[in-house]
Amino acid sequence: MVAHLAFRGPRSRTFLGVARLPHRARDVVRRPGGDPAIPLLPPRPRAAPRGARGEGHPLGHLPRPRDRSADGRPGCRPSPDPPPGDNGPVTSSDDPGSTALTGLRPRLPSPLQEVTDERFARRGIRLLLKRDDLIHPELVGNKWRKLAPNLAAAGGRTVLTFGGAHSNHLRATAAAGRLLGLRTVGVVRGQELADRPLNPSLARCVSDGMRLHFVDRATYRRKTEPETLAAVLRAADAETAYVVPEGGSNSPAVRGCRTLGAELAGRADVVAVACGTGGTLAGLAAGLGTGGRALGVPVLKGGFLADVTRALQDEAFGGPRGDWSLDDRFHFGGYARVPEELDAFAEDFEHRHGIPVERLYVAKLLYALVALAEEDAFPRGSTVAAVITGRPFP
Ligand SMILES: Cc1ncc(COP(=O)(O)O)c(C=O)c1O
Prior knowledge:
This protein is of the alpha/beta class. The protein has 14 helices and ten strands. It has helices spanning 2-8, 13-30, 118-121, 142-154, 168-180, 200-207, 217-221, 226-235, 251-256, 258-264, 279-288, 305-317, 340-353, 362-374, and strands at 112-115, 126-130, 159-163, 184-189, 211-215, 242-244, 270-275, 293-298, 324-326, 383-387. The strands form two sheets. A six-stranded mixed beta sheet has the order 1-2-10-7-8-9, with helices on both faces. A four-stranded parallel beta sheet has the order 5-4-3-6. The site of pyridoxal-5'-phosphate has 19 residues, from helix 5, strand 7 and helix 11.
């Protein structure tokens, strides 16, 4: 009966509420304690920003996790009276297996596909593609891994989250809402967009039932400050909503990404992933444990991601986990910048291997790996896995 309720999926909020009861009870009890004719030229190594991690050959000196005692541990404050937007303590419901999403039949573990690419093969490197893009047709890649535990934790409440006008995360959340019968609210960066026709990405969100709430960019920047968040929730008429941060990276999400690492542990020497908020990398590295090194390729400019990833691990696991580093040279000018060179690279990769290459994240990751291979950053005989975290839209 319990399994039936939990796995059949919520056709109604009442149904979901009943299915969650055993989890709630358990939480209460536990609370105390991813060959052209003329091969593309490899990229010129870009100058690494001064002081950034990943200078030179990042794989040559992967930074080890910091001394635990030297790190601060933000966000570990128990609060008896959570402020608006505080989703409460993380509980056993972070476990994606406990969610009705399982009824959507995700393809897990996702396929691990070996491809023959002469740019790697001539250096004696095996290239594997971790096809997270095949997990689910609508909740693609890391979206599945990050959203599943959050949707479980939401317990049928309205789910409110944040994103830009082209956010993969907003679309995935909206799709999840439709598939699971959950109400969703998307807080969109840019008040000016409210008066314009919706772009295809936001139009998809709306057709999936997401209610959009546009905020000005200054407010959006401050959205994690408690008062600003409270004001946004009030203005969006969603004060009791379960709040998922921009990009979906919170502790449940980071822990959800551990399974990605666990699926790859011992299968590759280096597992590389494109990074936005760092949540996927944080969980991947933890799941890999000693079974491989994780390499993050930030798609945003700024060199801030190491600190953010560390903080995410602190919050999710209480300290650093796994062996990870970042290479900051492949953002191509910043988020959503897709110059012709990158687009041509991605198109070429698609022709070589017959897989669709998402441009904002996955293309930068694959470009980085080809560049690193050209730099002889991977020793002969090594196996490199690239996580294909998304698919092109539309
Ligand atoms: C396709 C794709 N790959 C990678 C990422 C980066 O994930 P994270 O924000 O966890 O670093 C994102 C953003 O969520 C994404 O949409």
